[in-house]
Each structure stands twice: as structure tokens, then as C-alpha cells.
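Final report, closing paragraph on structural work. Over the funding period we assembled a curated collection of sequence-structure pairs, and we close with a single example.
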Amino acid sequence: MTVLDTPAGTTTSVASLVTQVRATFRSGHTAPLAWRRQQLEQMKKMLEENEERFIEALRVDLGKPTVEGFVTDIAFVLGEIESMLKNLKKWNKTERVSSPIVTQPSKSRRIPQPLGVVLVIAPWNYPVQLLLVPAAGAIAAGNAVVMKPSEVSGATSAALAELLPKYMDQSAISVVEGGVAETTELLAQQFDHIFYTGNGTVGRIVMTAAAKHLTPVTLELGGKSPVVVDKSANIAIAARRIAWGKWLNAGQTCIAPDYILVDNSVKAKLIDGIADAIKDFYGADAKYSDSYGRIVSDRHFTRLNTLMSGGNVVVGGDVDAAQRYISPTVIDNVDLESQLMSEEIFGPLLPVIGIDSADEAITYINNHPHPLALYVFAENKNVISHVVNSTTAGGVTVNGTLMHITNPHLPFGGVGESGMGAYHGKSGVRIFQHMKPVLTRSTKIDPSLAYPPYTARKAKLFRKFL
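Its predicted structure, as stored:
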């Protein structure tokens, strides 16, 4: 494995790295299932043996509580790796498919074929999970991989860059540290697939760079994920589940509830319930809770502090710039034209907007870009069905938040401006493969029906059987 941590102007070094990794792939080194299995087991071993190192790095970067860091970054990756190891042979097996009559006698199959060299660019909010899960899928699919951790979560990036070379195959798996300059140089190279997680602005840059080489991309972006709370909802449970999903990682989650559309008849009760949940989770002052994180950087702190002016703070609103702390905050009387409602919050601010019907919520959602996630709380099954079927989102959890991402049988990804492509479980392997179609015909017979001259009799048979 090669680790680059070099200043700007390192085109040759990056290009050489990609050339080296590509040569390894072309040699067939990454193709055997035994190699793939070994690398996945080594990644698992790295996480298990260095759990404390990663937990500490996450604490330094994001103030992540120990339990939260383990569950969302370490255990999540381990679960994905276990699933890949268990199903590695099955997911890489040739698939037999039927053949139409016109091809007979023949057999048809689809062969899973690795794409080649995959670039994985990860964000800072879940810096272990969002780098290693797609990388593991690419490895399980038989590819070579170049990984780019986020420089914003610098402690975690350094830990990954130090530890990955000690555990994994250096000839086929590389890490490039650095910032914009290094990412720009990487994007100038030709890859066979680029997997990017982050915001739409950079997503457009990635897609533009990929287009120069006709490289396929997976873009896991974000957007403003709404919560619809119907008057039939169990408000006490809704309040707790919304609060948990919102303030996990201090709101710095791509599928965190971004705003609530709640029936006016239960709005006050919901806000009170959320306030109670905050106290139950984090105590009287979340600043002193060992279960609540911090904002990742001064820049993001300043941005979030500015967004608070988009309405009236009714819960929280406390800040401490020195600690990059913003308390769990609920905002009412929201200005729908403010930045609070026009950009993804990605922090611990939760706007609450009153509505008079589910149809009003649906109209609002559909008048905005498709979100990465949508949440609906209701006991009325007709309301649930109406909201789910009348809106478009990357994924949905009913009567909960975030949980659809935990099921490896449910592909995770965005739609429209919230992204393209999906992964996790089998989808996280298949996205890095080409299912090569192969049809093999027998030479034991060779009916003349298929060949010219095309007589009236042949034309009649064609119309009957084709």
C-alpha cells in the first residue's frame, strides 16, 4: 500500500501510484476469491485490533462519544464485512439465465467481472464507515482500490493512513492523504469507477472530472431529509426517535432529519416531547454530556450559528465557539425563504413547520429537490401509504429515523440531487462489477431457418414464434 501526504504539484506521484495499482489489477492479482477474502479479513482485524485508536481519533475530530463511535463507525463496518465474507462466493457466482427461442440451442449466463481500479473519496462525518464500507465492497468485487479519506477529520485520516498499510495488500490498495490539491490530482487520473460521498457542489466536480474519461460514478450526496408527523402518530415515540436520529453525531449525518412537517393539532405536543427527549438523552445541559458530540470545524460552527436566525429558537440555542459546541436546538416560526430552509443543515438545528394535512406536506416536499431520506410518523396506514407513494426519496423509514440504512438487504443511495447509485450488502459489491452477458450456442445443429433467403414460409414462422 502506498500513502501519499505531499504538497501541491504531485501529479507524477499520484499518477505513478494509480499506474502501479492498475498494473496489479491487470496482472490478475485481485481476481481470486481467496485474495478478496484475505483482504476483507485483514480489514476486519485492523478494526478489531485498533478499536481504541479509531475511537480516540473520532473523539478528537468530532467529539464522538465512545459508544457512538463504536456503533456508527466500527461496528457498522464490521457488520458489512461479515456479510461480504459470508456471501462472497454466492455474490460472485456466475448467474444462469434463460435464452430466447431465436438463439436455440444455446445457454446464457451473466459473469460478475470487476471493473478495475476504484477511487473512493470519503467525507469527514463518519470517516471510518464511509471510507471502508465502499472500499470493502470494491475489494469483494475483485477490484484494486485507491482511498482518499477526508482531511477535515485529520486524526482519523492519519490513523487510516498509518494502519491500512500494515494490514492490507500494498500493491493493490492505496491511501492518499491530503486536501483539495491531492483530490484534484486524483480526479485527473483515469479510474474505472469513482465512489464519492459528500455534498452536491463537490459531487458536480467529481462527475465533471469523471466525464472526461467516461468513468462511471456513484454519488452519495445529501439534501434536506424531511420528517412528516401526522396527527395519528404516537407523538411520544415520534419525539424520541426524531431526537435520536437528529442529534446523533451532533446532527452531522447525511440522512439526519433536516426539518419536520407536523400537523398543527399535535405540533406543540411534539416540540414538548422532543425537549423532554433531549433532557433524557443528554441531561440538563448537553454541553457536559458524554453522549453528545461537537461540530467538526470552526467554519461549520460559524455557518450553523448563522443559520439559527432563520426562525425562533424554542429549545436549546446555546453555543460555545471555543468548544465548537451547539446544543440540540429546535426552531419554530421558521422563515421558509431563509438559508435554514434552503440549504442542508448538517448540524444540530431542527426547524419545525406546522401543516394542516398530509397533502400539504407532500406538496412542500415535491416542490423541492428529492431528499436522500424521508421519514413519516403515523398510525393511520392510509396516510403512511399516501406519503410514501406520493413522494420520491433515496430511502424511507416509517415510524423511525435512520434505520433503513442498517438493513444490508436495502440498497442505500440517493435520487436526483441527493445522489446516484446505491450500495450496502450485495448492492455494495455489485455496484463495482460489470455483469458480463455471455451466450454460448451449440454447433450440434444449425437450422437453416435463421439464414437467407427469407421466404414467405420463414416470414410466417418468424411472426408466429418471435
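Residues 8 and 181 are 5 Å apart (CA to CA). The longest strand covers residues 106-114. We thank the funder for supporting this effort.
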